[in-house]
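User: Assemble these into one structure.

Assistant: Restating your components, then the assembled model:
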Amino acid sequence: DADVTQTPRNRITKTGKRIMLECSQTKGHDRMYWYRQDPGLGLRLIYYSFDVKDINKGEISDGYSVSRQAQAKFSLSLESAIPNQTALYFCATSDLRAGGANEQFFGPGTRLTVL
Amino acid sequence: AQSVTQPDIHITVSEGASLELRCNYSYGATPYLFWYVQSPGQGLQLLLKYFSGDTLVQGIKGFEAEFKRSQSSFNLRKPSVHWSDAAEYFCAVGEGFNKFYFGSGTKLNVKP
């Protein structure tokens, strides 16, 4: 089935380490997003990409970087992880061709803990 | 700037009772509005969406929502809650074809 997958699902790391979270999708969607979820804050947008050559910062991009290696792959990197980046991270996709209010489809999430 | 407010952090209802979750938004143009549900340990699943037409929108799992432009609201309702509805619910507003802005979520507990 078409899907949005994230790896790893859980990760514990130490302050200062470089971490990469990966997202792959088989939906054929052109748009991909990275969010972080913190209790009581909902989901906040980190970065989004409308195609392989288009990367945009979201609300909270500081401390993060992304790479759109292909239409189907969008990776999020923490160059030097810090404890306040401990959160649940979600990847999402959407399809411009759907028109109108194109919904976003979410992956299962990656729980990251920075010690 | 766009924003979404969900004023209720936690709500507890008895199984079989009716449910209404509140959502207010701030957006200059006609909004695209969504409700998502997140079950424990899961990603977000779309319940319903509104972008034009009938202001009462039907979704999955027996949920509905009503868009009220005059009140800048998009409240989610269900006439009879089931124990499996216990989850966290997020309202979101879409900025055209571009970005979503999410509310902070409402956690629903269902008493037997």
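Chain B has a mean pLDDT of 91.
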